[in-house]
Amino acid sequence: MPEWIRQPSTETIPHFVRHFTSTRTPGCEFMFDVDPSSQEPVFGADDEQARQNYEFALREVEAGRMVDEGLLDFSVPVRDAGAIRCHCGAVVELTDDWEGAACQGCGTEYGENGQQFRANWRQFCRETGELED
Fold first, then answer.
1. Considering the entire predicted model, what is its pTM?
2. Quick one: pLDDT at residue 45?
3. Residue 93: how many other CB atoms lie within 10 Å
4. SS in 3 state form for 28-88?
5. Which of the four pLDDT bands, split at 50, 70 and 90, describes residue 133?
6. Which helix (H) or strand (E) holds 125?
7. Helix (H) or strand (E) segment spanning residue 21
8. Contacts of 24 (CB under 8 A, 6+ apart)
């Protein structure tokens, strides 16, 4: 069993947008990134045009020409495969890639769950037709 330095985990990265649609022109819409906690739009220093578009959308909602559809959740789960200590002592950052991850210290390769691959697994897979270069 590998010595886990960091256990595998999944974290959800929040991403919310406020969505406005036109009542007159199908397909005409605006979306603005918002802060997940305050639900206020997030504008960078160089986003003056986006700020103006947001103010325009609010005016259009007041005038009845746009509808504020509210918040849409585009949050994304991100998986961290974790990290283990190799038999040589080096830390190996695991990956979800089917080819695994190699120790930078000694070259030993590990799968996504920390299992050590056999030394000649690539050659074996080529011989059985499971791997083609």
1. 0.63
2. 86
3. 15
4. CEEEEEECCCCCCECCCCCCHHHHHHHHHHHHHHHHCCEEEEEEEECCEEEEECCEEECCC
5. low
6. helix 121-128
7. strand 16-22
8. 65
Q: How confident is the model at residue 98 (pLDDT cuts 50, 70, 90)?
A: confident
Contact 19, 31 (CB under 8 A): yes
What phi and psi values does residue 12 have, to the nearest 5 degrees?
-95, 125
Six-digit token pair at 128?
């059985």
Structure tokens given for 61: 């909602």
Beta carbons of 69 and 61 less than 8 angstroms apart: no
Asked if residue 107 has pLDDT above 70, the reply is yes
Instruction: Quick: pLDDT tens for 36-58.
Output: 889 899 998 889 999 999 999 99
Give the model's pLDDT for residue 79. 94
